[in-house]
Amino acid sequence: MTIDLEKVYWAVGLLLLVFTWLTLRDRQHRHRWSMAAFWGLYALVFLFGKRIPPAAVGGIVVVLAGIAAARWMGLGNYNGATTEFRLRMSDKYKLWVFAPALMIPIATLAVGTFLPKWGLLVGFGIGAVLSLVFALVLMRPSVGQSFDEGRRLADSMGWTVILPQFLAALGFLFDKAGVGAVVAKVMATVVPVDSRLAVVAAYCVGMMLFTAVMGNAFAAFAVMTSGIGIPLVMKLHGANAAIAGVIAMLSGYCGTLLTPMAANFNIVPAALLEMKDQNGVIKAQVLTALPLLVVNIFLMYFLAF
Description:
The radius of gyration is 22 Å and the shape is globular. It has 15 helices and no strands. Among the domains are: 83-140, no CATH class; 178-303. It has 305 residues and is mainly alpha-helical. The chain is 75% helix and 0% strand.
């Protein structure tokens, strides 16, 4: 049996429908109807995305944006684990409490190694399901409690849950609109294209800056690779596409560490941890991001050619 990405989308859609149902049952939720509509509409995109007309999907996106803009979202009442239960589980299982989370990278690596045709995202989805099953078997909470905890986390993240998809779509549109060609022309007038180090630095720094602007390295990759990576780094100077592409993505992640646009990584954790400084996560990551960018430039220069 082959598991493709669409089946993973179905699993996500079903989970969102569970969140929708639980939200509708939460009579103490101030915005339960709008919150349920948000998760329900989002679920439809995952479940029937291939069958829904593009214009209808666009309409759903507008409604989701309207709910978020009107601030008709928020936290409700959850059947979450008590502090006593969490402390008891921590004392009982020690480091084993991290075992369910480790199932995700293990499954992703296993699928990528032994079933490469399935794809890494499929492995990631399988790992998430196995992680849930492993946690239920290990700690024996109720299934309902597990879904309520998931809803609590999703509600805490709110509209930022859908931000990566929006930004990836934006990168695709930028690429189709020819932004990459414009970037290539600008770079040709600013950067000495005959210098291998200069074009490599432009590629890596461009990935970092564009990712910081868009909040998503995948969106930036389409634009910067079509504008700088392919014409200048790979074709003009003959870089190995696989090595250069991987290091360019890592350079993009340097930008992810530096931007509030990467809300899932930098803003949501600050909110969940109730940090006084909303940008505290970003400030802590600066001394990692900038040196890593310099290392990436030299790695690409010495390894990709």
